[in-house]
Specification:
The structure holds two protein chains of two kinds.
Chain A: H1 2-26, H2 40-69, H3 78-96, H4 102-126, H5 133-174
Helix pairs in contact in A: 1-2, 1-5, 2-3, 2-4, 2-5, 3-4, 4-5
Chain B: H1 8-29, H2 36-67, H3 70-75, H4 77-112, E1 117-125, E2 135-137, E3 150-152, E4 157-164, E5 169-173, E6 180-185, E7 191-195, H5 198-202, E8 206-211, E9 222-225, E10 237-246, E11 253-259, E12 268-274, H6 280-290
Antiparallel strand pairs in B: 1-2, 1-12, 2-5, 3-4, 3-12, 4-5, 6-7, 6-9, 7-8, 8-11, 9-10, 10-11
Classes of the chains: A mainly alpha, B alpha+beta.
Chain lengths: 175, 291
Amino acid sequence: MPKTRFIVLKFLVYAAIAILLAIVQNTPDLLLIGTAKPMLAAAFAVAVAMFEGEFAGALSGAFCGMLCDFFSYYRFGYYALMLFLCCLGVGLLVQGYMRPVVLNCCLFILLTMLLSQGIAFFFLFLIRGYEGTELLFTLGILPLCFYTVAMGIPAFFGVRAIHQWFQKRIEPSEG
Amino acid sequence: MKEFFKTGRFRVLLVVGCLLFSFLLRSIYTGGLMPLLSSAGGMLMVPLNSMSAAAGAAIQNRFGPFLSSGEVHRENQALREEIQRLEEQLIDYETVKMENEQFRELLEIKERNSDLIFEPATVVGRTPDDWFGSFTIDVGTYHGVSLRCPVITSDGLVGIVSEVGRGYSKVQTILDASVSIGGVDIHTLDTGIITGTIPLAQEGSCKLGFLPRESGVTPGDTIVTSGTGGLLPRGLIVGEIQSVEMETSGLSLYAVITPAADIQGARQVFVITDFGGKDDATATDSAGEEE
């Protein structure tokens, strides 16, 4: 029973942090460098997927994606679907092939951001033939991706600390 | 990894994935009318973001000098309490002052346009992917806001409502490349289409396109909305012409407009929920077509 309680508590903590990060990332003028702001909730979702596996990771990706969708430029549900799929992939890769280290986390966040922003960029701007799309990519999307990657480093260590703290309390009861 | 695809967990995730995809399709299909889930979520997120936006603005405007004088605060508890009390009074004063300014602006606009019905709103969120200065406001269908309602400040037009939930709405600005609004030069009466472009959006400008080659528009002219189609009221100030250029096709001219409203820095806006000559049917159809 304590194990279940700690697992539930762990995911409640993750949910609370995700909501907080979504609020921070959408607050006007906060964390603004030039015109770029980071997608903290997306970085956090990837970090969670690395430590919690594909199932919990995918669900946390969907949750964080929805939080991003409330204020996003894109249609509601876009980030939820993209982060769900990306976090599922991250979870599967970490379970089978890659180690949960900070460099891999940065790589996963970069790929997640490039994929989600790249698809939207392709369908909303490039395919419609707007002039100056390269400006949008270089001055808008790339800074957003790299800023998010940079913020992914504290997210990784934060999630790892939470994961380890709860794991210590969950594992003894397994034996 | 192969085993994962045969497990019950995979089936659950497949169902969740299909649900999320259906949410996205519904959101696209309804043309910005938020599904129930987003409206319910918005009821949680908007007040929280509203508080964080207000706190951010208060810190930026008022508390910066106080935060740097931490030593003085620690040394004298009595003074600290006094300052805190004064700060609370200051916040009250600032709130009243802000409301007063907002109502004064409202009155000013109302005097200019007696047929307009306004809903004051606060900018509660600016997302990291706001390439054209788009933002979220704290009013929605509950306050009478509908799709394509114009959003203005006392200086001029900011944009239009692109998605609307029960307690919040997303606003696409006139810098957005996907926004098209009829505009007219008040001096020459030449009409064109106001729209954004990606390069101009980087400079905070937009353009009045499809002007005839023989058009007499000149820098300094004021552009207002033409009001054609019943989507926007006539005569809303958009901005001033900065320069006049030839389109790359060589068939028409376009004018670069400096918006009258501070789009990137707007915190308080007004949504025009109704106006004389508004065509609700056209507005709904256009919103649907655009999607």
